[in-house]
Design a protein that fits this description.
Layout: H1 3-11, H2 18-27, H3 30-44, E1 49-53, E2 55-59, H4 87-99, E3 104-108, H5 117-128, E4 133-136, H6 139-149, H7 153-163, H8 178-184, H9 191-203, E5 208-214, H10 220-237, E6 240-247, H11 263-276, E7 282-283, H12 287-290, H13 292-298, E8 305-308, H14 315-318, H15 327-336, E9 340-343
Parallel strand pairs: 1-8, 1-9, 2-3, 3-4, 5-6, 6-7
Helix pairs in contact: 2-10, 3-11, 5-7, 6-7, 6-9, 9-10
Length: 351
Amino acid sequence: MDMQRITEKVLTGGRLTVDEGLMLAEEGDLYQLGFLANGIRRQRHPEPMVTYVIDRNINYTDICISACKFCAFFKPPEDPDGSVLSFAELAEKIEETKDLGGTQILLQGGLHPDKPLEFYEEMLGFIKSYKIHIHGFSPPEICHFASLSGLSVREVLVRLQRAGLDSIPGGGAEILCDRVRQETAPRKCSTDDWLGVMEEAHGLGMRTTATMMFGHVETMAERIEHLARVRALQDKTGGFTAFIPWPFQPDNTALSHIPKTTAFAYLKMLALSRIFLDNIDNIQASWVTQGPKIAQLSLFFGANDFGSTMIEENVVAAAGVGFRLSEQEIRALVHGAGCVPKQRRMDYSLV
C-alpha cells in the first residue's frame, strides 16, 4: 500500500479502509490532504455555496456529575455557584434569538444529579411554545436521563420527542474509543452507548450531527477508529446530517498541560474527515475554536458549512477561547472565499 495508490483511490471515488486512512493521516502532507478534500467537497457540492445556521447555544445547567477532564465549564453538585436556568431566563434568550433571525435553539447542559425526566419534558414544552426548532440533549445526557428514570434510551427519546425535541446534537462524542473515554471522562457514556443513542434517534426519524473533539490523549489510530465508527452507523441509518471535528481547548481544564492543536493540524484533520466520511454530506468548519481566518481557509480543506452564528457559547469560552462572529461577519468571510453564503436549518434545507 502506498500513498499514490491511496490518492488514486480517493480521486476515483473509492472508500478508504482504516489502514489507508491512517497512512494518509500519518504520511499525507497538508497540501495533498487539502487537494483531495477540496476535490470531494466540490464534487459533492458543485455550486459554490456555504451554509450557516442562526442559533443560540443554551446551557440549561452547569451542574454536572461527569467531571470530564477536558471541561472548564462544569460545576460539581456541591458548588454553591452552580445554577439551573429559570423559564424566565430561557424566554429572554429565545426571544433574543428569534429577533436575530434564529431558527433553532441548541439545548445542552451538565448531567444534573436529581432532575427528573418530567423537568426536561416541561422545559421542551416551554421552549416549543415559541415555535422554534429544538436541537438538544447530546447522547451523554440521554443516557443520564435513562439511568435516572429507569427507562430505556428509546423510551426516553420517545417521551422527549413527544415533548418537542426535534433533533440531537453530536456532543459528548469526544473520541469514540473506550480507552480514551475511560482516561478523560470515566463517568460518561461509552462508545457503544453514544452510538446506540444516535441509532435509536435515527430510527425514530430524528436527524443528528456527529462531532469529534481531538488533540488531547488520543492517538491518530483512535481518531481514525472514531471516523470509522461514525461512518459505519451512517451506512446503517443515514441519519447524520453533518460532521464537526474541533480541537480540544486545554486552558482552565485538568488537561491544561497538553499543548494546543495548531491550525496546521486542525486543517489536516478536517481534510481527513472529509476524505474518510464518504457518506456524510456536510462538514462544518469550527470558527469557534479556530477564529475567522482559519475557518475561512477550512472552506478549501473540505468544509462546506460555517456552522452557527453562536449568539451564545459558554463551554469553549470557559476554556478561554473567545471568538465571536455575527451573521454579517460570517457572510463577509464566505464572500471573501469566493463562495455564496446561505442561511440553513438543521436539516440543511435553506431558509
